[in-house]
Amino acid sequence: MTIRLLRLLTVSAALLALVVPAAGVAAPGDKPVDRGVVQSVNPSQIVLTALDGSVLSFSITLNTRVRLNGARASLGDIRPGSVATVAHDRRARAVLIEAFGTPATVTDRGLVTALSPTAITLRTQGGGALTLTLDGNTRFRFQGLPARRLLARPGALVTVSHATDAPALVVNVLKRAGA
After folding, report:
1. 105-175 CATH, one of 3.20.20.70, 3.60.21.70, 2.40.50.320, 3.20.20.100
2. What are the strands, taking DSSP E only, across 116-165?
3. Cα 21 from chain centre
4. What's the sign of the alpha-carbon dihedral 64, 70, 74, 80?
5. Strand pairing partners for 146?
6. pLDDT in tens, 104-148
7. According to CATH, what is the number of the domain 2-22+29-100?
8. Which of 14, 55, 85, 96 qualifies as a cystine partner to 35, CB 3.0-4.6 A?
9. pTM for this one?
10. In DSSP terms, which residues pair with 115 in a beta bridge?
């Protein structure tokens, strides 16, 4: 039920973003603002399709700020299909991108080397170490079923799902330590 509520809120926010007049968007220095559905995004540009069907392309610069659902984000968090507003200069260089939608989720796999109340550290298949933040929203599972944090102790094989640069959402223990 919470997934349905999250989807409903995301769609509502997206529709609201398309309806709210441009004057209501806090654009830095009263820059022009365009809005639409994200078609593609990469480190050099973002492409939107406006409600009238026109295709809008904006360059990304080192000074471009990005927000997703009201929080600071990176370009990697924005996915095609998200609704976005772009404040830009006369040369179509994005100054501020405000997107609404579900952030991209990454899943990492490895052996737990350390577990604390606020972080989990994994040794990945390539031999590197990866430390991810844990918070009150992090859920622990054993083979997909709800489980206690204790099962993710050092030596356990786990997958950790998280948004880019965000705390872990789910730690799934695939194989217990010593098993």
Report:
1. 2.40.50.320
2. 119-124, 129-133, 139-142, 145-146, 157-163
3. 26
4. negative
5. 141
6. 788 999 999 999 999 999 999 888 999 999 998 899 999 889 999
7. 2.40.50.140
8. 85
9. 0.53
10. 120
